Amino acid sequence: MAAAAAAAAGGSGAAAALWSEVNRCGQNGDFARALKSVNKILQISKDDVTALQCKVVCLIQNGNFKEALSVINTHTKVLTSDVIAFEKAYCEYRLNRIENALKTIQSASQQTDKLKELYGQVLYRLERYDDCLAAYRDLIRNSQDEYEEERKTNLSAVVAAQSTWEKVMPEDLGLREATYELCYNSACALIGQGKLNEAMKKLQRAEELCRQSLSEDSDVTEEDIEAELAIIHGQMAYIMQLQGRTEDALQLYNQIIKLKPTDVGLLAVIANNIITINKDQNVFDSKKKVKLTNAEGVEHKLSKKQLQAIEFNKALLAMYTNQADQCRKLSASLQSQSPEHLLPVLIQAAQLCREKQHAKAVGLLQDFADQHPANAAEIKLTMAQLKIAQGSVTKACMILRSIEELQHKPGMVSALVTMYSHEEDIDSAIEVFTQAIQWYQQFQPKSPVHLSLIREAANFKLKHGRKKEAISDLEELWKQNPKDVHTLAQLISAYSLVDPEKAKVLSKHLPSSDTLSLKVDVDALENSHGATYIRKKAGKLTGDNQQKEQGQGDVKKKKKKKKGKLPKNYDPKVTPDPERWLPMRERSYYRGRKKGKKKDQVGKGTQGSTTAGSSELDASRTASSPPTSPRPGSGAAVSATSNVIPPRHQKPAGAPATKKKQQQKKKKGAKGGW
Fold first, then answer.
1. What integer pLDDT is reported at residue 674 of this predicted model?
2. The Signal recognition particle SRP72 subunit RNA-binding domain covers which part of the protein (predicted)?
3. Among 404, 422, 450, where does a domain finish?
4. Which of 83, 243, 298, 455 lies 20 to 30 Å (CA to CA) from residue 70?
């Protein structure tokens, strides 16, 4: 602005005074007042290039980037790209019009240092890290001013981004980590390489440097320091989460959120990480955290992969909270943005499975596999899993065998053989072995996996009665390594089941027992922790003890038998009931329950009257049964039968009657008039 004021010094007196005011306000940083003076100058001369430049600068300093860009676009004839390229590109950059900013910089006829600095920032935002790294290297090499430390910090940030998002092994730039920003960026690069413990140490060092740097300023409060440390603590919590220390990570994440940092990008990342910890639990908390990821301006603060991860987690949360339509909408949007990405289609398939639409889910995955052959393997593995869940094991095997790049893998062979064995399809299982062995024979004949597969195939065939085929495999294995005694032993064992004479001939190739030197310490083996029997160490025996030891071998101790308990009222003179061990219902003298019998005997007429046929039912009239109860009005009968127990209570002679049954008898006698 000082140069602009000097250029206009030759104008009229009023204009000169205004330019002086603009110059003074610019030096004092009062750009709002300077803007007023510039507007007055433009009223005098509306096409004054210097005044227009000053106006744009004042608007930028006041944060009015839209208005500044509008002034530039309105006066394109006066403010050409050569004159105001940096200001225009900077406004576009701050308005997040990154592609436009790049075009403006590239169209400038002269690449000044300011444009190069801005060019590096633009490339970083566009995630063109290789070009960005070259731009900053050129700047550091060709610049010598007070901003060198900032350029090195930006350079280290580019290296950290490459390591994190592109998995590029970072080169040693030889930067001295004297500031907490450089330490922090170095820690991020280490996280990208998976060196979590080293990264944690770097972050702790960055925290120390940050506290030291900020504590030197007396105006900085503890709250300000904690706010500045929030991003470092957030990265520490992320390392804890990767290490499986989820409780510690969650606690640190929540502490950062309580500080209410102004960085919406940091809050969004922390909220997303908390949601990943919660998974399908604590859904209410996850719903609250999602709001932090929707804050204004988040999309301009995070990388594409970070934003993509947040959107994936939103779709999964919608699925866990049974918001099927929202889940489908989010996953469809993600698929349109990244058609080749696996996660959106997997989320859609998972949602369909939750709705019990397994066939539709398999069809969706099949369509994706056909359209994107590069990702077909992972999709087909998911399809096979769904088929197994439905019980269609054979169809799952067909899907797995269609993955050509995995057919020969030991894990795939093992899975297919197990599944075919479960379905009792031995021929298909052997075919899987054969195809895998042929692949290794063609491409990796000396691979140990090849020999291992032949051996496993032979064992499988022997187990399922395919002896001749197993012998063929074992012979092939023995030819490749004639000194393998284990294979020879297996071959002899197999021949013994088919051709014993051949087994005898082959057994001559076995080494003799004399050549086998088995250096086994039997005592150490018996006393080892894994031994099922541990021999007790023999101690010195005295004379008496020795005699006892010898005596124990000849005479066995007789165990004393405990005497059985007898009932309290047991009478040895009376013979016990031989049926006492049987349940009451199974005893020969059991006559059924007496409940309700009395009611059946009561007549339905007037009191004291008898019903027809009562004499037939009277057991006392029969010769075989004793009198049961006294008849009404017969006193002699009472005296004659007073000592006789009714048959329903009668027990065999000598059988003790319990106290409880005696009490029941008394009660029934009182009620029934016995």
1. 35
2. 536-592
3. 404
4. 298
